[in-house]
Amino acid sequence: MVAAISIPVFLIVAVIISIYLPSLFFKPKTNFLYLVDNPVYDSTCSQNLYSVVNGKLITSNEGSAYECNLRNNKVEFYVHDIRQNQSRPISFYQAQAF
């Protein structure tokens, strides 16, 4: 009976530790840029549209961008500020400046 209860409790504690333990040791040293896709649709829009070439963010296929917008698949760019430990939304053109 005790083993039947202790195994799920142990697994829950192990999952909690595995989620929070890396954040104690890893802290980013620079601000970083990321994008969030609309989870309702597939992520092929962001994968095919945006890439980094020579350290610069570019959009690669305008036709696909039009199709993605028709499907209402909005891609949102964010920049994470390590000093404030906060992310804020930015436009594609602001993201290109990074």
Question: Could you characterize what this model shows?
Answer:
There is one protein chain. Helices cover 45% and strands 24% of the residues. The protein has 98 residues and is α+β, with helices and mostly antiparallel strands. It has a domain of 67 residues. The strands form two sheets. Strands 1-4-5 form a three-stranded antiparallel sheet. Strand 2 and strand 3 form a beta hairpin. The longest helix is centred in the N-terminal third of the chain and has 24 residues. The chain is elongated, with a radius of gyration of 20 Å.
Protein topology:
Elements: H1 2-25, E1 32-36, H2 44-49, E2 50-53, E3 56-59, H3 62-70, E4 76-81, E5 86-90, H4 92-96
Antiparallel strand pairs: 1-4, 2-3, 4-5
Q: Count of DSSP E strands? A: 5
Mean pLDDT: 79
Q: Mind summarizing the main beta sheet?
A: 3 strands, antiparallel
What value does the Rg take, in angstroms? Answer: 20 Å
Q: What keyword list fits this structure?
A:
98 residues; alpha+beta; 3-stranded antiparallel β-sheet; two-stranded antiparallel ribbon; 4 helices; 5 strands; elongated
Give the structure's gist in a few sentences.
The chain is of the alpha+beta class and 98 residues long. It is built from four helices and five strands. The chain has a domain at 30-96.
